[in-house]
Design goal:
This protein is 30% helix and 41% strand. It is an alpha+beta fold. The protein has 2 domains: 83 residues, F0F1 ATP synthase delta/epsilon subunit, N-terminal (ATP Synthase, domain 1), CATH 2.60.15.10; 47 residues. The chain is elongated, with a radius of gyration of 16 Å.
Length: 138
């Protein structure tokens, strides 16, 4: 049997996945990174985007994360996500409405702190739409 890497994705609400996989690709803040068995240990922040799970040379799963942290060891990749869900759980209409509302909030922001908070929420909403586009093939 080929070596596998243990992958866990945890959100504040639940453990979403815990399984041995061939490879996992995570949207790190500095760019996507792939984790295979024997990977060098490191930690990274995770930006909003889609985690891809590979088995048998193909993508067997995709999960949206809104950001968080990843810890990688030679045997394991653990992602602690602020929010996580299957792309199929994302409601396009709700996200598009949220983006419109956040655009209004951005125009009404009075301070840099308010603008940064709205921008962070806007980035997550835009990443959700991108995840839908990516997984629907459009």
């Amino acid at each position: 049997m080929a070596e596998k890497v243990a992958f866990e994705l945890v959100s504040p609400e639940r453990l979403l996945i815990s399984e041995a996989v061939d490879m996992v690709v995570v949207p790190g803040t500095e760019g996507h990174f792939g984790v295979l068995p024997g990977h060098a240990p490191f930690t990274s922040t995770v930006r909003p985007g889609v985690i891809e799970i590979y088995n048998g040379g193909e993508v067997t799963g995709r999960l949206f994360v809104a950001g968080g942290f990843a810890e990688v060891t030679p045997e394991r990749c653990t992602v602690l996500a602020e929010e996580a869900m299957a792309p199929g759980e994302i409601d396009r209409g709700q996200v598009e409405s949220q983006i419109r509302d956040l655009g209004e909030d951005m125009r009404g922001a009075q301070t840099d702190t308010e603008r940064r908070a709205v921008q962070a929420r806007l980035l997550v909403a835009e990443a959700k739409l991108a995840a839908l586009e990516e997984t629907s093939g459009r």
